[in-house]
Inverse folding.
C-alpha cells in the first residue's frame, strides 16, 4: 500500500501537487478527476540483490511508479542515482502524466529508479543490477503496458540490457518494451539529441514572444550531460552565444561565447570541463545568477529555489531538467517578469522521440533522422503555440496582471483539460 506521507514528504512531489491544485482551481476541474490524480495507480518497491565483483552480495532499492494510464501505456525513464526514493519517483511519474497529456501523446505517466551511485560500480555490476531490476519489473512492463527509457545515470546500453532480459524471460524479442535503445536493435534516429533539441526549439519560441531570436541570444546551460550537451550543440548551430556551461566538476564562463566543438573535444579527452583553458571557472551557483537571455537548468530538481531566486537575472528560464525550479521560486520569478517555460513543455523532446521510437518498433517501419527532427520541431513549436494562445484566454486575464504569464499554470491547465475529458469519457470520473 502506498503511504501518502512518504510521497508528500518529497519536495518535488509536493510541488507537483501544488501545481495540480492551482490549475484545478483555475479551470474548476472535476473533483473526482483531481482526487484520482493525487496518488499513483501503482507503486512498486523491490529489493535488488547483486553479486559484486568481490563476491559479496549487496542489496539495492528499486522503484517503479505508474501514475496514470488513461491516455495510453505508462511511459517514463529509469534513473540510477544515490538520492532516488519513492517520493521523488512518484513526483516524476506524475510530471510524465501531465507532460504526455500536454504534448498530445497517447501515453500515460510513469518513472522508475534505483538508489545507487553508478559511478561506484563496475560495468559488470551495473549490468547485473539492471538485469535483476528488469526481472523484478517484468510482470508490470511491456510495449502495451509500461515502456521504460533512459534517464539520469542510465543510457542506451542500460536499455539494451533491459530489452535482452525481458526477451529471455518472455521467450521472444519485443523491441517496443523500452525506448532509447541503440539503433541496431530498434532505436530511433535522433533519439540521443532529442531532449536537448526539443529544449532549443522551445527556446526559439520563448525568445520569439520576447521579440528577439535565438541567433541574438546569450544562453547559460547548467549541466553538460545528455540534455545540456545536445542543447549546447543545437543552440550553437543556430547562432546562439552559449556563454556558460557546467558539469559535476564545476562551471565555466566566457562572455564572448564558448567554442562548443572545442569544449566537447576537451571533455572527451579529460572527462570533465574543469580547467578548460578558454574560459574562466565559476561556481554552479554563479552560473544560475548570470545576466543572460536564457538560463537552462538541465541537471537535477530544486536548483532554483527560495535561497537564490532573488539573484536570478535571466529573462527566460527553460527547464531542461524535471522540477529544477521550485513552486515558490517559479511564482516569484513570474511576478518579477521572468518567463519560466516549465519542464512539462520545455524538456518534452525526449518523450516525443521515445514515442516515435515506440511507433516505429510496433510498426517495423523506421524513419530518417530528418523526418524525426522535422516531426519533433512541429510538435514542440505547436505545443508552445497552444499554451501561448491559452495564456491569452480571458480565464487568465486577472492572473496575468497579478502574477505575470505563468506558463507552468497555463501548461497544467491545458494538460488537465485533455486528461479530464478522457477520464470522463472512460467513466473514471463523474
Amino acid at each position: 500500500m502506498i503511504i501518502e506521507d512518504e510521497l508528500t514528504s518529497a519536495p518535488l512531489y509536493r510541488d507537483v501537487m501544488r501545481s495540480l491544485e492551482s490549475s484545478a482551481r483555475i479551470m474548476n476541474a472535476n473533483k473526482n478527476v483531481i482526487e484520482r490524480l493525487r496518488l499513483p495507480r501503482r507503486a512498486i518497491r523491490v529489493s535488488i540483490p547483486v553479486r559484486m565483483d568481490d563476491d559479496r552480495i549487496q542489496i539495492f532499492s528499486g522503484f517503479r511508479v505508474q501514475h496514470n494510464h488513461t491516455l495510453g501505456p505508462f511511459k517514463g525513464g529509469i534513473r540510477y542515482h544515490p538520492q532516488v526514493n519513492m517520493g521523488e519517483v512518484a513526483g516524476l511519474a506524475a510530471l510524465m502524466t501531465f507532460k504526455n497529456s500536454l504534448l498530445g501523446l497517447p501515453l500515460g505517466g510513469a518513472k522508475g529508479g534505483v538508489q545507487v551511485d553508478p559511478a561506484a560500480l563496475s560495468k559488470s555490476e551495473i549490468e547485473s543490477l539492471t538485469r535483476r531490476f528488469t526481472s523484478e519489473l517484468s510482470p508490470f512492463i511491456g510495449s502495451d503496458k509500461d515502456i521504460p527509457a533512459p534517464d539520469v545515470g542510465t543510457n542506451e546500453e542500460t536499455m539494451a540490457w533491459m530489452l535482452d532480459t525481458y526477451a529471455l524471460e518472455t521467450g521472444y524479442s519485443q523491441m517496443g518494451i523500452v525506448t532509447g535503445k541503440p539503433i541496431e536493435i530498434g532505436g530511433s534516429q535522433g533519439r540521443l539529441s532529442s531532449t536537448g533539441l526539443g529544449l532549443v526549439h522551445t527556446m526559439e519560441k520563448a525568445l520569439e514572444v520576447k521579440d528577439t531570436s535565438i541567433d541574438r541570444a546569450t544562453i547559460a546551460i547548467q549541466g553538460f550531460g545528455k540534455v545540456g550537451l545536445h542543447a549546447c550543440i543545437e543552440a550553437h548551430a543556430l547562432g546562439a552565444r552559449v556563454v556558460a556551461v557546467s558539469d559535476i566538476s564545476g562551471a565555466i564562463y566566457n562572455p564572448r561565447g564558448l567554442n562548443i566543438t572545442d569544449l566537447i573535444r576537451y571533455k572527451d579527452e579529460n572527462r570533465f570541463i574543469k580547467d578548460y583553458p578558454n574560459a574562466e571557472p565559476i561556481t554552479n551557483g554563479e552560473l544560475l545568477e548570470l545576466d543572460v537571455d536564457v538560463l537552462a537548468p538541465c541537471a537535477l530538481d530544486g536548483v532554483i529555489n527560495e535561497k537564490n531566486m532573488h539573484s536570478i537575472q535571466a529573462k527566460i528560464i527553460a527547464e531542461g531538467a524535471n522540477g529544477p525550479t521550485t513552486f515558490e521560486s517559479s511564482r516569484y520569478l513570474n511576478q518579477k517578469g521572468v518567463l519560466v517555460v516549465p519542464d512539462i513543455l520545455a524538456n518534452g523532446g525526449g518523450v516525443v522521440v521515445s514515442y516515435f521510437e515506440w511507433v516505429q518498433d510496433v510498426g517495423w517501419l523506421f524513419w530518417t533522422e530528418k523526418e524525426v527532427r522535422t516531426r519533433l520541431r512541429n510538435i514542440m513549436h505547436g505545443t508552445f503555440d497552444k499554451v501561448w494562445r491559452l495564456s491569452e484566454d480571458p480565464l487568465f486575464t486577472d492572473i496575468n496582471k497579478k502574477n505575470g504569464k505563468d506558463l507552468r499554470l497555463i501548461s497544467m491547465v491545458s494538460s488537465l483539460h485533455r486528461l479530464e475529458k478522457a477520464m470522463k469519457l472512460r467513466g473514471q470520473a463523474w
